[in-house]
Write a structure and sequence with these properties.
By secondary structure, the protein is of the alpha+beta class. The chain is built from 9 helices and 5 strands; from the N terminus they run ααααββααααββαβ. The protein is flat. The mean pLDDT is about 85.
């Protein structure tokens, strides 16, 4: 995959790593943003990524109501200091995350939280659908894998496309803010309610 100047700039904005190192990281990761961040972390070059390891026990509980009270969201976003917790930049980020949850209804914060049973169930559905579509057996697993990744993108907050910029994930948005704020930022937990929805757990 060709590494573009825009991709390098985006990685630099998120990690504060030097431009040449960002280029090398993206080339090694074949253009995969998250793998490039990990590469920079391993080399000790990503200040934003390093900050993500620090303790974040301050922050804000952002409460957002949408559509005249039809949807309600409560999200806890943490940072390291009370000073940052009170800053406009941090509060704006917390509000944007609450808006994202209201609009896109994620079920989990990160992919690791999805129960294996749910992934197995989705795999079965994807496999049955691929067979129904007449896909050849030798590529079935590749198709299932692709659809599972797409499912994770839909149900995990950090992997969702940001509602204001489809090219950016929520994880990238947070990384950019970590670089700008200078502190670790963590989405601790969230809850989303919709008027009239069943309280039964599936």
């Amino acid at each position: 995959m060709e590494v573009t100047t825009a991709m390098i700039k985006e990685l630099r904005a998120a990690t504060n790593a030097p431009m040449l190192d960002c280029r090398k990281a993206l080339q090694d990761a074949n253009g995969d943003f998250q793998k490039a961040v990990d590469w920079l972390r391993e080399k000790g070059m990503a200040t934003a990524a390093k900050r993500a390891d620090r303790d974040a026990s301050n922050g804000v509980v952002e409460i957002y109501s949408h559509g005249g009270g039809r949807v309600g969201v409560m999200v806890e976003v943490n940072c390291e200091t009370d000073f940052v917790a009170r800053s406009e930049k941090f509060r704006t980020l917390a509000h944007e995350i609450a808006l994202q949850i209201a609009a896109s209804a994620p079920k989990y914060t990160r992919a690791e939280e999805i129960p294996q049973s749910e992934l197995d169930h989705e795999s079965e559905i994807a496999r049955a659908r691929a067979k129904e579509e007449g896909k050849p057996d030798n590529i079935l697993e590749k198709i299932v894998e692709g659809r599972i990744e797409k499912y994770k993108d839909e149900v995990c907050l950090l992997r969702q496309a940001y509602i204001r910029d489809e090219k950016m994930s929520i994880e990238k948005l947070i990384l950019q803010n970590i670089a700008a704020i200078g502190e670790s930022v963590i989405v601790r937990r969230f809850q989303r309610w919709e008027l009239g929805e069943s309280t039964q757990q599936s």
